[in-house]
């Protein structure tokens, strides 16, 4: 649920969500590489386990909430952690068994899923201007993807993991709504740390059970240096940093608008490619402009209205 915030807080929230989009924009290709050298179940578990110490450190450094929070409900905590666990597992396996271009297209429809779930679970009406902003962002995202060199020749064939990515997004959006309802009074860092800790317990227990049954594999024999960097980025930034920024954004602008920012992930993927010597095509540039114009349009409306959606 979004709270009324000042315009400066709205601006900072939007900046944080854009940084989250930058982080998550790198996740799909990096996970694709790591799933080829590491066990899927181990990788899914490590995402939360390795990111947890950073969240714990952040929790120690921030001031406690001014009001005494409600007692935590163990059942609610278990369900929130399970939703995060389901997202991590389904997302990792879905990326492994999807073409990167197709996976990005599926993930780009996150704002549509979030708008539907916010309507069903909270009765939230679509914010004024959201359909226009969403249309611009979706169109831009598709242009960015379609303009990727070789994308048209490769086609957009399904490889079986795409339905898992849809279910993963549903799990994540459900978590995003319920976490604010059940733990929002503990602050966004507290909320993120508590739920990530429960998810880490679920993931560790699940992995150990699968490993004991001979389904999951053990640690890889060796990882080259860039694989280690990818793993650190995914765990520290992709989980610890991004989850906090995401929850802050959801609490201030609402789930649908926060999800709209995630349509910028293909843009950041293109910028990353350009940084390593792969300049963007004209279609990618045009798509990036459309995505950013949709986000700017939505933010301008919110500034004008003087409140969040």
Give the termini distance in whole angstroms. Answer: 9 Å
Count every beta strand, where a strand is a DSSP E run of 2 or more residues: 0
Number of domains: 1
Query: How many helices in DSSP terms?
Result: 14
Cα Rg: 19 Å
Characterize the biggest β-sheet.
Answer: none
Beta-strand percent range? under 5%
Unreliable residue stretches: none
Silhouette: globular
Overall mean pLDDT stands at 81
N-to-C SSE string, H for helix and E for strand? HHHHHHHHHHHHHH
Structural class: mainly alpha
Instruction: Estimate percent helicity.
Output: over 70%
Characterization of this structure:
This protein has 309 residues and is mainly α. The chain has one domain (7-61, 72-305). The chain is 75% helix and 0% strand. The longest helix has 29 residues, at 225-253. It is globular, with a radius of gyration of 19 Å. The termini are close together.
Q: Could you name the key traits of this structure?
A:
mainly alpha, 309 residues, globular
């Amino acid at each position: 649920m979004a709270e009324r915030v000042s315009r400066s807080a709205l601006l900072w929230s939007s900046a944080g969500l854009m940084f989250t989009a930058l982080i998550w924009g790198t996740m799909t290709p990096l996970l694709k590489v790591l799933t080829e050298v590491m066990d899927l179940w181990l990788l899914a578990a490590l995402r939360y386990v390795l990111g947890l110490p950073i969240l714990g450190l952040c929790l120690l450094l921030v001031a406690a909430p001014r009001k005494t929070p409600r007692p935590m409900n163990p059942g609610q905590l278990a369900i929130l952690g399970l939703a995060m666990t389901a997202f991590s597992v389904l997302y990792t396996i879905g990326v492994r068994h999807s073409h990167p271009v197709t996976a990005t297209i599926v993930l780009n429809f996150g704002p549509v899923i979030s708008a539907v779930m916010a309507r069903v679970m909270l009765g939230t009406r679509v914010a004024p201007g959201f359909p226009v902003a969403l249309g611009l962002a979706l169109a831009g995202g598709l242009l960015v993807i379609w303009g990727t060199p070789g994308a048209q020749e490769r086609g957009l064939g399904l490889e079986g993991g795409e339905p898992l990515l849809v279910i993963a997004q549903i799990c994540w959006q459900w978590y995003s709504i319920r976490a604010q309802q059940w733990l929002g009074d503990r602050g966004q860092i507290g909320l993120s740390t508590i739920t990530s800790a429960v998810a880490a317990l679920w993931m560790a227990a699940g992995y150990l059970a699968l490993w004991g049954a001979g389904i999951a594999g053990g640690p890889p024999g060796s990882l080259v240096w860039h694989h280690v960097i990818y793993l650190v980025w995914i765990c520290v930034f992709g989980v610890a940093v991004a989850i906090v920024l995401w929850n802050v954004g959801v609490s201030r602008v609402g789930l649908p608008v926060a999800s709209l920012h995630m349509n910028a992930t293909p843009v950041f993927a293109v910028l990353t490619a350009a940084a390593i010597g792969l300049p963007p095509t004209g279609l990618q540039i045009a798509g990036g402009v459309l995505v950013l114009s949709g986000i700017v349009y939505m933010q301008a409306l919110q500034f004008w209205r003087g409140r969040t959606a």
